[in-house]
Design goal:
The complex is a heterodimer. Chain A is mainly beta. Chain A has strands at 3-7, 10-13, 19-26, 32-38, 44-52, 55-58, 65-70, 73-78, 87-94, 103-104, 108-112. Chain A is built from no helices and 11 strands. In chain A, strands 2, 4, 5, 6, 9, 10 and 11 form a 7-stranded mixed beta sheet that branches. The radius of gyration of chain A is 13 Å and the shape is globular. Chain B is mainly β. In chain B, 0% of the residues lie in helices and 53% in strands. Chain B is built from no helices and 12 strands. In chain B, strands 2, 5, 6, 10, 11 and 12 form a 6-stranded mixed beta sheet that branches. Chain B has a 4-stranded antiparallel beta sheet with strand order 3-9-8-7, with no helix packed on it. In chain B, strands 1-4 form a two-stranded antiparallel ribbon. The relative contact order of chain B is 0.34. The model of chain B has no long low-confidence stretch (mean pLDDT 92). Classes of the chains: A mainly beta, B mainly beta.
């Protein structure tokens, strides 16, 4: 069966520091991968999605970037964190383009101080 | 662009009773999917139920069922025989078919509390 791993679970970083969140999927090949962000008490907002290695699409212009160095690995990064980057970040995968639903990881709670 | 609206920020229900969570959406798409996700205090997003827009029959999953009204663009979730473990935030989500690449639009969520 497929599983998705996301780490770290919790992260506290100072403003201006770099960020790297990692997500890996097991048990499937060539998944679509997504990064969502959930601000406090709000719904999820799609940040990035990827349909293959090296293919990244950004939904919202921001201080963050994403990379997909391997088929089942998706990384969310920032060179310099802002206070507004605080939130709950969720990685998700789906099997094929346009095929839903999404399956989510356990999330990373990021606090920028 | 699609929008999803959940008009009930909070709901509460007694254990073993039934509760209905509301969701409306706006889209010009004809081929789409609708979902209810549950987010318990652990924050993990768990798929509760899904509905394909082309299907007229309402989806059911054990104690969970939906009332899908395509013309009214309404997609409510009914939870029967509520259990304490149903306490969570519930999100309604919309996903267009075709080449949408699984991009979901989420509502703001409804916090459901089940009381013993």
């Amino acid at each position: 069966s497929q599983t998705i791993h996301q780490w770290p679970a919790t992260l506290v970083q100072p403003v201006g520091s770099p960020l790297s969140l990692e997500c890996t999927v097991e048990g499937t090949s060539n998944p679509n991968l997504y990064w969502y962000r959930q601000a406090a008490g709000r719904g999820l907002q799609l940040l990035f999605y990827s349909v293959g290695i090296g293919q990244i699409s950004s939904e919202v212009p921001q201080n963050l970037s994403a990379s997909r160095p391997q088929d089942r690995q998706f990384i969310l990064s920032s060179k310099k964190l802002l206070l507004s980057d605080s939130g709950f970040y969720l990685c998700a995968w789906s099997v094929l383009p346009g095929i839903l639903p999404l399956h989510f990881g356990n999330g990373t709670r990021l606090t920028v101080t | 662009a699609q929008t999803v609206t959940q008009s009930q920020p909070e709901m509460s229900v007694q254990e073993a009773e039934t509760v209905t969570l509301s969701c409306t959406y706006d889209t010009s798409e004809n081929n789409y999917y609708l979902f209810w996700y549950k987010q318990p205090p652990s924050r993990q997003m768990i798929l509760v139920i899904r509905q394909e827009a082309y299907k007229q029959q309402n989806a059911t999953e054990n104690r969970f069922s939906v009332n899908f009204q395509k013309a009214a663009k309404s997609f409510s979730l009914k939870i029967s025989d509520s259990q304490l473990g149903d306490t969570a935030m519930y999100f309604c989500a919309f996903g267009a078919g075709g080449t949408s690449y699984g991009k979901l639009t989420f509502g703001q969520g409804t916090i459901l509390t089940v009381h013993p």
